[in-house]
Amino acid sequence: MAMKRHGVAVLALALALAACGGGNEQQQQAPQGPPTVGYVLVRQEAVTLTTELPGRTTAFETSEVRPQVNGLVLERLFVEGDVVRKGQPLYRIDPSPYQAQVASARAALARALASIASSAALARRYGELVKINAISRQDLENAQTTAQQAQADVAAQQAALRTAQIDLARTTIRAPITGRIGRSVFTTGALVSAAQTEALATIQRIDPIYIDIQQSSADLLKLRQQIMSGQLTRDGNAPVKLKLEDGSDYGPQGTLRFADVTVDPTTGSQIIRALFPNPNGLLLPGMFVRASLTQGTDQKAMLVPQRAVTRDEKGGATVMVIGADNKVQPRVLQTSRTIGDNWLVTGGVKPGDKVIVEGGMMLRPGMPVQGKPWNPNAPAAGAQPGNGAGAPAAQAK
Predict the structure, then answer these.
(1) CA distance 206 to 154
(2) Are 274 and 237 spatial neighbours (Cβ–Cβ below 8 Å)?
(3) In the 8-state DSSP scheme, what is residue 34?
(4) Nearest-CA neighbor of 117 among 89, 146, 78?
(5) Which pLDDT tens digit goes with each residue over 326-355?
(6) What secondary structure does DSSP assign to 357-375, as a single string?
(7) Which of 333, 300, 334, 335 is nearest to 319 (CA)?
């Protein structure tokens, strides 16, 4: 019985050794080819360059409502916060003194008209008398001068009447522009004057509305130089997009109007003004926004995915490139800015280079690789050799 058990144990040990030996032989016979990496092909393409800058909303038109005559405010004819139309009555000032001035000017004009009739008749009679030498020529000239003075008095009284009528009309204060009116500073019964410094109310037109954007004068200078050199092309009506204070996007797009000709010496910035439609009144004057400006189009831009770029010990941007002999080559990049998930590259690579995007973490310069085009929408190949995720599952254990 003991001999039988000993034989079974020896047989099991032999089978185990055979199995281990077979596994090692299969592992030694597995091919060890170059790792597979995903790459993107560098090419030149037209890329629209944008920048995001802070800005403030400004009313398209602003008008301070002021009195042009003196008097007591009898009535306010609007509701604060409403939209008023150009020419709409806003305040009524006591018109009684100005009605009296109009009546006085009318009477003076009637007196002047009566005087011109008598003086003109006298001048005509003297003209007949001087022909028969009944009066002297000096008397005729005096009569003609008096008639001319009477005509001048009529013109002066007509102007005085017109002035009195204008002052009377100004007792009704009307909206100079169409827009939304703010609070009324003066109430009924207040005494106002044409010389006062404080406005009665303020009207602002906010559809459309201006966005005043601040940009560094150095950046603007660089942009102009790039456009002049042909590196960038720019449309005359470049679109502008907005982000509101809460981070949400403002739907309608705006257009650039002009850049201020003066640089603020304290901040070194210039004001760029854009115009936006504001039909619902969502944008109010004084709001903080962020504007996304289209600076221009780079017709020969080169883009490299950000995930392909690493930093060396000096902080420089580097990538791995598949050389002509399918060996890894490091490159130092010159980058200017990010565009989405890519770097805009100005040097270090050239069109046609194969930049490694996936599987480059474990690579060394001069190491042979097998490249395949990188698909950003494909799931990460976690089991590929040299892809930065480690070895295959059997080796990771």
Answers:
(1) 48
(2) no
(3) P
(4) 146
(5) 899 999 999 888 888 899 998 999 999 999
(6) EES-TT--TT-B-EEEE--
(7) 333
